[in-house]
Design goal:
Helix content is 71%, strand content 0%. It contains four helices and no strands.
Length: 154
């Protein structure tokens, strides 16, 4: 197994933002394509885009943001990221429902901006969780080993 050098904390947040922006770009492309080219309801569009972008962003976080996570089990990083994505989908879908109720005929772009504002807030919580789960852990202290018994000579 390859051991990765931990990334300095001052470099982790910019990497997280870059990976998150890539995930948001993936979400935007899927969201806008489905919203404008299909009759699919906006909630289904949002969930579909969120699933795709979550897979993209989580894998980027594992490989780019927290490269020390190379030895972390796949399900651990994707589990935390997936939980954050689920929270983001629930909150953003609720926000979209309220938005479309308050502003009938709201544009796809306004819905997309609302989704990204909500998921941006969820992303901050996700950063803290992933930093804890995916950061390399320092080796624990070594336990002292028993030394051979000494005999006292008189």
């Amino acid at each position: 197994m390859r051991t990765a050098t931990p990334v300095a904390p001052t470099r982790t947040l910019p990497r997280f933002v870059a990976a998150g922006l890539t995930g948001n770009l993936a979400h935007a492309v899927v969201f806008l394509l489905l919203q404008t080219c299909t009759p699919i309801p906006v909630a289904v569009v949002n969930v579909s885009a969120a699933v795709f972008s979550t897979l993209v962003a989580n894998e980027m976080h594992r490989r780019f943001t927290f490269p020390g996570a190379a030895g972390t089990p796949w399900f651990r990083g994707h589990g935390v990221g997936g939980a954050a994505a689920l929270l983001g989908v629930v909150l953003s879908t609720a926000a979209l429902a309220v938005w479309h109720h308050l502003v009938p005929g709201a544009s796809a772009l306004s819905g997309l901006l609302l989704v990204h504002a909500v998921t941006g807030l969820v992303g901050l919580a996700n950063f803290l969780a992933l930093r804890t789960v995916l950061s390399p852990r320092p080796a624990g202290p070594e336990l002292p080993t028993a030394s051979p018994a000494r005999t006292v000579s008189a």
